[in-house]
# Entry
Amino acid sequence: MLLMLYGDRRFCGQTVFGSDRRRGALSMASAKCQFVLGIILVVFLGTWHVSSAAEGTAEVLTPRDNLQIANAEKTCHLANLFLHSLADDDGVAEPIDIHPVDGGKVRKYAASLDYSVNGFHLLATASPRDSCKLDEISESSSAVMLDPGDARNLEIFVLAKHHNIDGLDSQKYLLNVSRLAGSETALKDVHVPGAYFVPGWKPEVKRFTVYLNLEEDLVKFQILKLDNGQAVKMVAELQEVTAELPGRRLQGTEVLSMPHSSPQVGEAQHLTSTLMTTLDVGHTRVVQIQVTSADRSRVHNYYFTVKRPPCPVDRRFFDGQSRRCTDICNEGFYGSSTTGRCTRCIDEQCAVCQGLHCSLCFDGYELQSGLCVPKGSGTGLATINTIESGMSSYAWKHQTLVLVVATSVIVVCLACLTALCHSGGFRHRKGSLLGDDDDEGDDYEYYPGSGRG
# Structure
């Protein structure tokens, strides 16, 4: 609008000075009017540019900007808040996750300790550091101990260091820290990429139906435990053909995913574990996830009925390499009606096959008796040579074995004969020695048919 008025000479000439008919005065007055409008236009454009830049900056505020804004507002607040477990014998302390809780005007946070964690330390920093501080209780570095199943509420006050500082408000924070009882069997979160749950994930629900996208060959259960001490085991039943019409929306290429918790940055108390199984197109598999409590006193089962849609009738085979349905499989693969996917041929040198039967080989090989063999003279001499070479090797090995066995038998026989000979010579010598002793004692010999000497 200002631009239109600035460019319209009649506005300054007729409206403002419409009664003045002298050309010189009219020209000077018109120039002054346009000059004033130009100044107003420059001021307006400058104000609009500054406001636009401020709005653009507000949309991309970083955490550091927010901290600077809080510092500029003259409000004492927490710059950071950390919890960690008591250090073990090696001096290692595990982080404890803290998440905000809706508490109205008072800022509330909550944290949960694992069953195996006896206590925790709290670390906090006040900001601005030069003018704010924590109260004595919040600043204490002593450990806080908790029994299993117990909880404790902590109040954290951020106060001004000097009472004579005007306009510097204090801030109050509430922190609820609880310790798990050890008998919990619920999982915190379960997520399957490329699938969605019906009903949506809730820890208290036991049975879910998982609709897997057609392009996903693997069923990846990404599990977030409630307690690190929980034991999780997966049991997958045999897959069955899905009794559904080929009209589900999952047959498209759209990847549907279940809402799940956002990944954390930095150290985390609980890490995601992955359990996997497979599922062919057009099949259903029931997966059981068994959760054992941290104190091993209870067991809970989750049941997931995973369904994967079939390929369309005109493209009824799933190609695992391109991850899409097709009517003709690539070389070296054949369409299996049992699994509904392109399956590799048994013979690696076979280009076109149907199950165990090969009908065409790759270049450099020829088909002989249903097998792909290296190209030879075309009369099977290569196969015969291969067989003869194998037989020669087999005969040579057996001849060597027979020779070794025969040599061993001969050695054993010679050893036995030598032992027998040595045994007979010892007896003969022993008899002669006894005879010599008898000769020395002839007075005591007894001869048959005679009286005593």
About this structure: The helical segments are 2-7, 9-16, 23-59, 63-72, 136-139, 381-440. The chain has six helices and 26 strands. The chain has four domains: 2-52, 74-179, 187-261+268-310, 316-374. Residues 2-52 form one domain.
